[in-house]
Amino acid sequence: MRIAFRTLLPFLVPYRGFMALVLLSILAVTTAGLLGPWLIRSLVQTIRLSAGEPAVWFSGLSGIALALVVVYIVRSAGQFLNNHLSHVVAWNLCHDLRTALYRQLQRFSPAYYASRQTGEIVSRVIKDTEDVEPVVADVIYSFVVSALLAVGIVVVLVQLDLQLALLAVLPMPFAIAAVLWLTQRILPAFDTEARRSGELSALVQDNVAGIREIQVFNREHHELGRVHALSHSYAQDQVHARKLLALLQPIIEGATGLSIVLVVWFGGQRALRGEVPVEDLVAFVLYLTIFYQPLTMLVEVSEMFQRGIASLKRIREVLSLEPDVADAADGIDLGRAQGRVELDAVTFSYDPQRPVLHNITLTVAPGQTLALVGPTGAGKSTIVGLVARFYDPQFGQIRIDGCDVRQIRLDALRRNISMVLQDVFLFNGSVRENIRFGKPDATDAEIIAAAQAANVHDFISALPHGYDTPIGERGVKLSGGQKQRLSIARALLKDAPILILDEATSAVDSTTEAQIQQALERLRQGRTCIVIAHRLSTIRNADQIAVLDHGRVVELGRHDEIVAHDGLYRQLHTRQYALAE
Questions:
Q1: Does the reported pTM lie above 0.85?
Q2: What is the CATH number of the domain that holds 129?
Q3: Quick check: 50 pLDDT over 70?
Q4: Are both 213 and 144 inside the same structural domain?
């Protein structure tokens, strides 16, 4: 719990002015709460002492009534200020937390996302931050008010009658011990509930994204069963957490009732003997009705508190995690690179027990094209991921213009790289917005030129709203070839000196492929290209072809050179042409 609040405190600092006003409103509410029973005591005393003297009674009653009016106005104003200002602080703090989480998530490499479900990550950014809001807006307020009320009431009770005060607080230690015992069990229960909520969110999000696959493979019943089972577990976790929570209220009510019974029984006897004034006994009972109110308030907000603490722990897990790929303390900015790319004895593995690349050494001069070919799983995509520094090698170096990429600032490195991935991702927006993603300040003329170079302009022009046509989430309204060409246009618009094409023509037909290849040939001037392709016809003119097999470079040279050898490249080449025929 201490660690969770330590996470929260830095985000509260910018709002210390608002928090000071909230504290003042809390003091006003607490003071008004303490004055109410005291004024009722004064009323009883006035009635007792002014019996038979209507003028004195009326004068005293008027003063007490006026004082009560002021007390309730102050209390109402304080409650309004607290409710408004505390939520202003809370929602702005949630915004800051959400932004900090998203900023942190952007620092993580693909390795982080490969081991987590998207729904779980989204749940941390959206739901967990929202669960923190009641902690700031309601729980902190309830805790401070409760503490001040408890201290204030104890002081008043002791001043009125020490013996009755000791009787009144007699059940308090037992109530507190029971609450603490239950709280230790409630927090893990809400932690489990929050984790299960993330799992359910992730499963539903995955199924919605893959609804076509679920339908075409007739897996609706199976996936419904998975959602049903996980939802049932989530419901059971919620019931268990709230069962523990429900035990708190009877404990507080029991302690309050016992205190009142003790005071009424023993205090009533003393009042009958004239040892305790009647107004003091009345005040005692009134104060006791709010004496355990602090614990009652804490019980009422305990669910929000437990949920918020569990969420803060999950948020802290992300904020405290160090990215596996990060800028060096003295990272440099290359400016616009010439485009020389070198891999020097690079060895890499996702799993330490299973290396993916073994001692890879390759060099691409500025303006040259390196083609990477080989069977699936040979390590081609891993190489381009290392060049873009999505990962860092365990051994060896990757250099751009002679500088180790680990010494180059990430933003400076990636500013020099354009990439078209095999798995095309398009954002839910217009065609224009998706192409412009590669260069936010691009003019319409530049966007059109990039689209023409990628052979997609005619298709865009035929859309209902041209470049302003929405394409749906992940480009769901487009064909595979159309999405691929849009992503190529986006990369071309960026105009980086290093261009990476990972199966860039895998989703286009032969005619479109030829047109794109012509455009790419023109664009290779002054640009270093690393191309991954299964279609060997697309890389015949590459300056170098590196043939990979099981993470090793087994052949290296131009097409005419290596096809003449009886090696893996020749086998792949012969097989493809046989299939084509």
A1: no
A2: 1.20.1560.10
A3: no
A4: yes
